Amino acid sequence: MIPVDIVKTRIQNDATQAVRQYDGMIDCAAKIYREEGLRGFGKGSLPLLLRAFPVSAITFMMYEQTIQLIH
Prior knowledge:
This protein has helices at 2-14, 25-36, 45-70. It has one domain. The protein has three helices and no strands. The longest helix is centred in the C-terminal third of the chain and has 26 residues, at 45-70. With 71 residues, the protein is an all-alpha fold. The protein is elongated and about 50 Å long.
């Protein structure tokens, strides 16, 4: 899912710019591949993984607590 997240992040960042660089997800993915190759889809994966661990842990913990409250 990292390549999909990288495309999503680039489109989100692009939305804050005065001049848009991408016309959508497919256009963004094509430009990444053309300009950076497959390695372009892995750029920034370390910060993404470092962010994913605590977010997933908190989400799982809140889910479990909610289920306990419901029962």
